[in-house]
């Protein structure tokens, strides 16, 4: 179904979507003109899927901080995900990443496509970070430090149990919720949300993504790590790879 067909099928959605489109155009006009900010918002659209749409609805001060926060963590995630990086190289980068964001000359080439562009030109993100308020910088540094340390812990540790699952999801997603709460608080827009609420939402979103993407992870070449814990899927199958087989194959026992 094309765009026109979708509008005709859901006419009540047209006006809200039009308002959102106009709001985005207005927000784009407020983006600072400096090249580093132009790079940050361009990359935000390329590597964040739907998050860019939400981030651009924020006020200017908070929008810039959340944009940089997202790109810093996306860069950290790119290092974690790149299976071509040797462990002895990857670990110190993850652990010290929170210090690199203060270095406007630092970059590390890894990842592919738009993620590689982000890493190769990370100095733009660091420059934008240097222009944020101290409260925002402190929040981003703290979450980056804690997330990098957690990612490093799980480079050599498999997610086998539900406790592992909760811990890993806390590091890579729960901390994002905590960081966003800190950024809103630093902007004097909200009180600090209880950590358990921020963490719980992050765990829910990350677990949804892990379950959704498990087949993509299985088929990835080179082979990537699996994050859906054995303690869950081993109740139903002996090997995670057979979960996607047709039901009649599973019940036949010929696997």
TrEMBL record:
Matching Pfam families: SQS_PSY (PF00494)
Chemical reaction(s) catalysed: 2 (2E,6E)-farnesyl diphosphate = presqualene diphosphate + diphosphate; 2 (2E,6E)-farnesyl diphosphate + NADPH + H(+) = squalene + 2 diphosphate + NADP(+); 2 (2E,6E)-farnesyl diphosphate + NADH + H(+) = squalene + 2 diphosphate + NAD(+); presqualene diphosphate + NADH + H(+) = squalene + diphosphate + NAD(+)
The GO molecular function terms of this record are: D-glucose transmembrane transporter activity; metal ion binding; squalene synthase [NAD(P)H] activity
Q: What is its main location?
A: endoplasmic reticulum
Q: What class of enzyme is it?
A: transferase
One biological process term in Gene Ontology: cholesterol metabolic process
Q: InterPro entries from the xrefs?
A: Isoprenoid_synthase_dom_sf, Squ/phyt_synthse, Squal_synth-like, Squalene/phytoene_synthase_CS, Trans_IPPS_euk-type, Trans_IPPS_HH
Keyword Cell wall biogenesis/degradation assigned to the entry: answer is no
The UniProt record lists the EC number as: 2.5.1.21
Read off the PROSITE patterns from this record: SQUALEN_PHYTOEN_SYN_1, SQUALEN_PHYTOEN_SYN_2
Q: Where in the cell is it found?
A: Endoplasmic reticulum membrane
Instruction: Tell me a GO cellular component.
Output: endoplasmic reticulum membrane
Q: How does it sit in the membrane?
A: Multi-pass membrane protein
Q: Please provide the record's keywords in A-Z order.
A: Cholesterol metabolism, Endoplasmic reticulum, Lipid biosynthesis, Lipid metabolism, Magnesium, Membrane, Metal-binding, NAD, NADP, Steroid metabolism, Sterol metabolism, Transferase, Transmembrane, Transmembrane helix
Q: Which cofactor does it need?
A: Mg(2+)
General function of this protein: Catalyzes the condensation of 2 farnesyl pyrophosphate (FPP) moieties to form squalene. Proceeds in two distinct steps. In the first half-reaction, two molecules of FPP react to form the stable presqualene diphosphate intermediate (PSQPP), with concomitant release of a proton and a molecule of inorganic diphosphate. In the second half-reaction, PSQPP undergoes heterolysis, isomerization, and reduction with NADPH or NADH to form squalene. It is the first committed enzyme of the sterol biosynthesis pathway.
Under PANTHER family, the record lists: FARNESYL-DIPHOSPHATE FARNESYLTRANSFERASE (PTHR11626), SQUALENE SYNTHASE (PTHR11626:SF2)
What is the name of this protein? Squalene synthase
Species of provenance: Rhizophora mucronata
